[in-house]
Structure prediction request, 253 residues.
Amino acid sequence: MSKCKLHLSKISMLHCWKLVFRSALFLALAVIYIYDRIIAHQSGQTFMAFVTHPYLLAFVWIVFAAEMLLRFFPSKMESMGCQKVFACNYQPVAQPQPHRDDRGATWAILAAWLGLNGAIAALYFTHIIDNGILILIALAYSVCDMICILFFCPFQTWFLKNKCCGTCRIYNWDFAMMFTPLVLIPHFYTWSLFSLGLALLLYWELVHLRHPERFYEESNASLKCANCKERLCSHKKQLRQLHQKLRKMNFMK
Prediction:
């Protein structure tokens, strides 16, 4: 019986590591948040979410600020999904074809994201959640970002209908979306993280406006499956195949 072996690319392994790291970071801060809230309640002290642990916020800031700054430069350790913005990764196809119009889907994603975070803001201003929860939401978003790349992406499936992360129209929106809740917290760490993410998004959109040919496989050969070296889509394909098998087994029962 032949065995199916999954050979992870360097990019896939890096994203798996990021998923583990970000999940551990989220869980660690969630435990600290709950512990501090319990201690404050038992002692009758005022609860100061993460204020007594400034080194934690500094660590989170260093990790994500460094990752965002590296996104402004070409790198072989990043997915072509975000690297296609650079001219060095543009390979003109012999016969370019018109790419599909994804403006409607892009605006729909923006509206959905603003709606979701508007609801979170309403919970914050009505004092149902506090600053600590906003930070945990941002870290939860960072975990979901890796899940979108490796396993399932609602933006890809429900809105853009693109084939993979390499052809994703909004790949470099991730950090701005991730740190949207932090806009509500007036602090250097929070506002600088969101500002860096927003700068990445604006740079992405400016390049897309001036050089849309870099963003679509119909005009950029770097995005074609034959030239892909990272194979990030393999995880999603395996999950779809497993889901189809399970559905078939349940149907046969």
User: Anything to note?
Assistant: The CA atoms of residues 43 and 246 lie 52 Å apart.
